[in-house]
Amino acid sequence: RASYxxxxxxxxILPMVLGSFVLAALLHADLNSRPLFxxxxxxxxxxxxxxxxxxxxxxxKTGGRIEALTSHFIAMMAxxxxxxxxxxxxxxx
Length: 93
Fold this sequence. Notes:
93 residues, elongated
């Protein structure tokens, strides 16, 4: 059974990845006085958020009906990224 939906998978991800690196360079915390590594950590956080966006895109293109396990995975990924973002925001000072 083929599960790849080529027609619906049309989200341009490259501009969002580049935007993640730009935002990370601007918004990174000062965790260990090494701005490059702090910015890379923040970029990883942003890219982790972007990893879920294609799933949302595909769900919206296919009518919004998905299996329970898929919806639970997407919800838990969102909670995980939210908690990581809150942590990064608090250590930003």
